[in-house]
Write a structure and sequence with these properties.
- By secondary structure, the protein is α+β, with helices and mostly antiparallel strands.
- It is built from 2 helices and 7 strands.
- The mean pLDDT is 93.
Length: 138
């Protein structure tokens, strides 16, 4: 009798910001990738009725940071800090879900470089990010 391999998909539920904003974070430990999804609500919009830039930055920081963590170790999900996060805002969203994805592009023992994207449910690009993340030991 063989046992089934462990499920590579893992939901991350962090206290604090995730609970306040309401996004969902899912890791694929097999691929070392992350997806962050947010169903837009009125509290996520700015005064002109579009997704607030600070929320965009938060989603991209979360997806890029989790992807960087997987770059270091897909199983243990080590802690890290954001060293630099540069965001380009491309288009606005007013409603529906938005999905952030990221890909590690390189790094070493303690630094990871990651590119991220935020898209609406039709796949239209809303924002891009490049980030540098440092592994925190201890």
């Amino acid at each position: 009798m063989t046992s089934a391999p462990p499920d590579p998909f893992r939901e991350i539920n962090d206290p604090g910001c995730q609970q306040l904003v309401g996004y969902r974070t899912q890791m694929d430990t097999r691929a070392g990738s992350c997806e962050v999804t947010l169903d837009l609500q009125p509290q996520h919009l700015n005064r002109i009725g579009v997704l607030h830039g600070g929320i965009v930055a938060t989603l991209l920081d979360v997806v890029c940071g989790n992807t960087a963590s997987a770059f270091f170790d897909r199983e243990s999900h080590p802690n890290l800090v954001t060293v630099s996060l540069n965001i380009s805002y491309v288009a606005a969203a007013r409603s529906g879900p938005v999905i952030a994805t990221a890909k590690a592009t390189g790094g070493g023992r303690s630094i990871a470089y990651v590119n991220g994207e935020l898209r609406d449910e039709e796949g239209a690009l809303l924002a891009t990010a490049t980030g540098i993340f440092k592994r925190v030991r201890g």
